[in-house]
């Protein structure tokens, strides 16, 4: 099949750019969880919030949405081009998108048609210069790499031990014999290198090492050394500059060099990011005595001039002379000299801003907000979740410290809500936190309205606690069962008859599910020993759900293993005349 790179794709892009209406993803908290829809530039919903997740509309007029834990594609009328059937759909690149399901990774075109003849073990997220890097596993379990063209065909054989994306029409690959090669878009070998390591092609130079445990330097395409090996890390050249690292007293320090190897930014920084448009974010330790903490950043140019103080928590890439930044208190735009753009939005909290078609989109403190080009707010996430005409849940924000952010629920409409709301605040993590002190961990907390029926409200309190230097953080999940009429908050035992062997009965049912259902094969084989009397649980429509914390009966990646027990299976031990049961029946 012949590849087509003709003008038809530009006609599609031009047609989309002349559209009168652009749509933007927007979430709404409601009973049953957060749903996503799409608003117009006036902040009005055009596609109602029915999706579990919703991504931005892309230039081809398609957007990835989630339903029933699967991903699909819709057009701007809300019609499914691809029904939700994939685990993930990556953004389109060069008219193609990488998808994956139980079979593996595939490629679809803009009509939703799968163009690959088979599924691959791994496909990298996007096409680069009409080539997609894919991975397969051979009979010996070894990973091998090759490239597909835009027709989904293998155009460069899957035979390499490693491979880079294409850049400037060239990629670096490593053969099974250990030699490195520079290849073109058809797989023709341009140069072979007998070196311990070669990678990161950019502007005619490649990063290399002479020995496995040696330092990094740079060679030209012919393999001639241009910059002698001297760095502990090295990245590709972009706009005649490259970020390199040195090891200083067992600490990594980063700088920026020119094509002759001279430092334009000395290696004095804990991190450096290339922001594009000849600008860099340079970072230093916020607290030198705690090296695992995040860096604080300043803005520098490619000539080595430091343009601002070290005042930014985050700096995003530059686009048309502007970059979104966050300091301790606000998120806003700066120009290439680090000056705040006063006519553009300034939002309290930490996050980012981006120009999206006719609006400015902000994701600040884990909440979306949209502004028009004049900096006027046109939409933000609602803080009130109505349950009915009488009751509602109101979202409150607690951010005493830049490392501590909690959204907590408060119930309105109850006769005596004080005790309930006090408990909700405490469970959500609202506690005294010093404003100016550097914390040893980062905590974010939120909530969902999982269930509401008759007088029973079930609120999920969730969070994530990341201890700096740890391999990962620990997720938090708690459920609160509230009787809105009298303020009672129920425990598991309250659902069952007094004296009933509910622990034994529930434990046996769960064991039965584990033994009979292959979906629980991920559990540790000998770690399930039944439930506790106060086992974490939540009520859903028609069922009791029992769950376990990470590491209790499964590996961390399994999250919170959950078992659903229909009420019909428990009717002999449920106290059907009890207050808990009657609160929702």
From TrEMBL:
Query: What Gene3D superfamilies is this protein classified in?
Result: Fervidobacterium nodosum Rt17-B1 like, Heat-shock cognate protein, ATPase
- Matching InterPro entries, A to Z? DUF3298, PdaC/RsiV-like_sf, WG_beta_rep
Where are the membrane-spanning stretches?
A: none
Residue span, DUF3298 domain: 493-568
> Taxonomically, which superkingdom?
Bacteria
Instruction: List the protein's name.
Output: KWG repeat-containing protein
